[in-house]
Amino acid sequence: MQKHIRLLIPVDFTNATLQTIEWALSVFDENPVEIVLLLAREMEYSITEMILYRPKPFLDEVFTTDFKASISELRQTYTKTLAKIHVEVFHGNTVQAMKNFLEIYTINCICLPPTGLYKPVKDSFDPRKLLQKSNISVIEMPLYASVAV
Known about the structure:
alpha/beta, Rossmann fold, five-stranded parallel β-sheet, globular, UspA domain-containing protein
């Protein structure tokens, strides 16, 4: 029986993310993989902003048509390996908040893009430090392993 992998990858909606996804799928090619793309944002501090906040308008703004098309291509290419892929927004800035998020989504492994390639989008941040302190297995895509997407 194949083990189902729930893999978390930080998303910046660039080719670096797409390359990391494709590399991760090649690493776990014997197992079905569910990928949670993580967009990390700081918590809103205004009560009004927290009450009225909805992630969808923000995601619609940063989740480009080209990125969506590339994800569709990956789904078609990796039909046997890629069980599911979706974007989730993390709000917080502490290790405990990240651990809670990872537990809620039952993440087995974290795959990071090569150091320096992740470029946070509007109002987001690089969650690398929080993820590395989470006590979940972390693998980093080697810079030389970049694949054409």
